[in-house]
Each structure stands twice: as structure tokens, then as C-alpha cells.
Amino acid sequence: MKVKLEDVCERGSSNLKQSDIIGLKGDYPIYGASGYIGNVNFYHQERPYVAVVKDGAGIGRTTFHPAKSSVIGTMQYLLPKDNVLPEYLCYVVKYMHLEKYFTGATIPHIYFRDYKNEQFNLDSLEKQAEIVDVLGKCERIIADREEELKKLDELIKARFVELFDNCNKEVLIGEVIDICRGASPRPIQSFITDDPEGVNWIKIGDVSENSLYITHTSERITAEGAKKSRAVCKGDFILSNSMSFGRPYILGIDGCVHDGWLILSGFRKVFNELYLYHALRSEYIQNQFSGKVNGATVKNLNSDLVKSTYIKLPDKKEQEDFAYFVEQVDKSKFVA
Prior knowledge:
Blueprint: E1 2-4, E2 9-13, E3 28-32, E4 35-40, E5 49-53, E6 62-65, E7 70-71, E8 75-80, H1 86-94, H2 112-115, E9 119-121, H3 125-164, E10 170-172, H4 173-176, E11 178-181, E12 192-193, E13 199-202, E14 213-214, E15 219-221, H5 223-227, E16 231-232, E17 237-240, E18 248-251, E19 255-257, E20 261-265, H6 273-281, H7 283-292, H8 303-307, E21 310-312, H9 316-332
Helix pairs in contact: 3-9
């Protein structure tokens, strides 16, 4: 049976800020956009529910939460009706990719009123339970594999520290890398297109935390919109400048970028790209970023702050040796 999302759930909201729960302790979990925050002495929802990130980085991310728990205000509740299992609702919403409904340039938002009419096939409760069981088993297999990959990534990080932690040569990023901010055409929704010939439109929601290369996007924009945006090329680096600021990615595609990104180019004479990627993710640079960002509510990392950050500059041969090590570890990730 074909139904709309609003037929199986109701929207709930939270006005809690993370600062409201500092120092609180209790038996009831509370969650934010990045997951579990801690336990408090109250709860907002009596029954299990689904939560969606509605503000900032990660908009559209969907998670399932237990009874007698709460979320903070960057998320909204989707409260299941009697015709749907909450776990089933979570899977349905997760694959709707709600981030496509975002509005706002500096702080993206999504609203229930915009996606409540999303349609899907509603199975019987018995069939829903079967589907939830199968998908749950698949997710456990995936989680085990992700843990293996995490350990390999930790090996790369340890090798990076071993090789470069004591490197004394360093330069300001702005001296060796060209940096500019992305740009969004206004209003962006008027430039979104279904035309496969459209230009890749690279948004914050098109990447995940463990991504290295960005190889596809969920939306495209028209050629006219691309002229009003900022073009990027395969091989460029982009760096998130708000919310989860300072996270780097290497572009595997040409396209245009949302203004939530900084574009890094012209670095290849000095840096091996794999060395640069891991250097930008290192504690040495991330700690500098954290100490520089401004903004009371939403931290913002602008191009001037990045340019004034120091980066270690080992010999190119040392960088290439490290890159070879990374490539060998990455190959092991694909061994069955």
C-alpha cells in the first residue's frame, strides 16, 4: 500500500540546547546530531522513535532511539503511529535522503512540512518485522567490517605520528596553498536540475566522516547555476568551514561547491596529496583550527584562519614513502 510519510508518523520538536544539560545526571539517555551525549534525569519520549538532524552539518541523518530518551534541538522527532514499527520507519526515512530538502546557505535546515509527502510502500506489521530482522543482521555484519577498517585507519594515523611528529620544518598553509571559499547561487532550489548533463553540486551532505574521495553527488545544478557558483576540479581539496569544520576531502569529480566549503588548490609542487590529507586531519592542525574558529553558536573556519595555520613540511620523498605505506594499507582493506 502506497502511503505518505505523514500517514505513519507525527513530528515532534525539542528546544533543548546542549548547554541545558551540562552537569545533569540520571538514568535516561539524550542524543544529538553526532549520537549519544550522556544521561539525564528526565526524558521526552515514552516510546521508541526516529530522530532526524534538521539543522547544520549532517542534515537528514536519521537514527533510531529507545523509549524514555530525548534529543536536543538540532534534531526533530518522528513519532511512529500504530501502523508502523519504529525500526522500520527508521529504515524507510534513512533511504529517503532527506538532505535534498535543505534550505539556507550558512546554516542548512530541513523542515517536516517539506518532506512529509514523501511516498513509500507500507508493508504489514508482520512483514515489517521480517524486514527489520534481515536488515539488522546486515547492519551487524557491516559494523564488524567497519571496526576492522577503523583499526587499519588507526594504523595509518600511528604511522603518520611516528614519521612526522618531530618534523621541525613547517610553513603557513597560506604560503604554499591557494584557498578560496565556495559559492552557492541564490536561490539554490531554482538551479537544481534532474538533467543528467547538469553540473555536480557538492554539498556537506554528500560526504561521510570516513570518506577520502568525493566521487558522486546527490544533486546537480544547471549551467546557469554553475556560472553563479564556484567550480572545482577533480584532484582539488575541499575543507568544511562550519559545524564539523576543518574536515578535508579530495575531489574525485568536477563540479561546483556549496559555500560551506573552502577550496584548496595549487599544492602539488609541495605536497603529496595523501600526505596533505592526513596532515590536515592530524591533531596538530585540527587543534590549531579549534583554537582559531569564531562564532558564538556556529563555529566558522574562514580562509584567512586556514591560511594562518602552520603545517609540517617534510621532504617530498618522506611524504611519498608515507603515501606508499597508506596505499598498501588501503589495499588490505579490499582483501576478502
